Here is the input.
Amino acid sequence: MDSFMTAMSNLASGWIILSAFAGVLWGIFGGALPGISPSIAMALLLPFTVGMEATNALVLLASVYVGAEYGGSIPAILIRTPGTNSASATVIDGYEMAKQGRAGEALGISLMSGLVGGLFGLLVLVLCTESLAKVALAFTPAAYFSLGILGLSVIAGLSGGSLMRGLIAACIGLMIAFIGSDPVSGVQRFTFGSEDLLDGVKPILIMVGLFAVTEMLVQIGEPAWASGGNASTKLKLPNWALTKRLFKPQAIGAAIGTVEGVTPGAGGTIAAFMAYSEAKRWSKHPEEFGKGSPEGVAAPESANNVVTATALVPLLSLGIPGSNSAAILLGGFLIHGLQPGPMLFQKAPEVVYGLYGGLFIANIAMLLIGLVILSPCMWLVNRPKPYLIAFILALVMSGVFAIHQSIFECGLVLGVGVLGYVLRLLRLPVLPLVLGLVLGYLVESNYRRSLLISGGEHSIFITDPVSAGLLGLALVLTLYTAWKEFTDRQEAKG
Here is the structure.
């Protein structure tokens, strides 16, 4: 109780509130800038936290995480450019809504769903940290492999009615994921002698190229800017009727985000795609998905914002960073002489409680700051098409170059944009490619580790109870999707 009161007194002093607002503001801008991931936005601030008080520094870094995960949805909706990996699922219906002149509505749904997800994730973090940490501890390499297979099982629902086209696109994504060094032996693969490919291809580079550059190539060939003249420049928050409709997809996103967030290595991207797929599966209006469905925006935004809090469960309880952003936050702990883990709750409980309070303030700050900056962002979309395309290209290239100051990566993004344009011409869906890219390393590395543990016996994936359960769930989801696709075709013929 003394530690709790100390944390509350620090909160009342105003420094934690200031840190939370500053972190969210920087995070939103960092997330909205293509190529600047939440972890990069956090890393840029890390040196400035050395002289700060521990609680204020950690709140600042964690608030950047909150702001960046939300900020990634702004360019995803307005210019079809996911600012973060996890915002890729928001592009599907968010950009379609913007093309229909409903950009203000889409951004309002994103903002409120992010707030709901963030507060729910914080509640889970505060109430269930120890029990959820035990669940994460039960995940073996075999279970992680099965988790990746479960993620790949949603490809059928993201293939636009053609499972074969979806599998082809997913294989392309897996091939890109295998570029770099072997995760077990370290042998170079598909690098063609290039040192720039030794660490593999970063997913954010592929996503920026596929979504942003490809869209610009498409728009150049069209006479009018699709979203410029129709998009409302006034932010529109969901009314009561829409709020009730969004309750189910937000709940689905919150549930999936909780499981994925507490699982080290899963992250907001997988959670967002799985939430989108499940929201479509359980929706009363699945035909609207991909054509501007509000539920298609609410589910992934709720999921990836839940992850910002639940991803801290393994970090605080076990000292295991479950994501790149959590690893940056771990660095913040170590800079101030704190070691996350079970002993943290005994040695510095006031820091933990202060972090909880700071995350609550950060979610409120996300709402307040979002209400201010979204209208100017929508105004920008309505500028003349040539100016806007040039601005987007400069924004994308500057953001990509800022990551590693690499001309090679800038060229890679442009090349991926051309690949995405070719995929459009061949009518191959992009989303299965992205999913294969994101899950490729998770599946391969844990498959290899599992076989090393079992001496080459594949039975380890069945004898491990968590792995067997995830594989069974993946099989059920795949069969259900195939059956639903078959019945839909029969109804269309009849």
